[in-house]
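Repro:
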Amino acid sequence: MSSDSRTRLVWMVSVGLLLAGTVWFFTRPRDDDENTPPGIRNVNKLEDKRDTKALGAKVSDADPQVASRAAQALGRIGGDEAARQIVPAFQDARPQIRAVAATSYGNAASPDNAAPVSNLLANDRDGEVRAAAAESLGRMRAYNGMDALLKGLDDPEVDVRRASIGAIENILPGLKWRYVPDAPDAERRAAIAEIRQAYPKLKGNYDRYMEQLKQQGKQ
């Protein structure tokens, strides 16, 4: 590559990053008028500063709007440090906060950091939270979350089962499983056993798929 070509490439990358940052700044949800509660304005300012630690201190705020907005802000900022700051909200007594936190974690975390949201799927007492956790594992394409998702396939709530099979299909795309979320228990569990037996043999397919996404700039 010539010196001029390298210079043009650096310039194009710089412009692309600047445009991406500008789009993010002007399209993120905002409500900063004079009627906006002070707590929300503060979260917006912390998001502008990308202050993940300070936002993490807000994810369990007594005000549910502040707590939810802080988790969502961390999800938009992204990255594993932002994801770590969301995790304390998984212990919040309010299920709506745990659900928002689960969704935001899936927006922020890398595929290798599935453990916190996998535990939420496996152990949370609220079905909406478990469904949000399953959806996040799928969005993360977290192969390490497969065991939790297999448990989700036998969840007592059908919405969790639907979210779990959807996540598995996103992690291991292009495969047709016999699993039907609202099938009778015996039929459903037979299909779960098939998936449990098959998926460890598909790790190579998963790795190639993730490498392809990486090359395409989608992961």
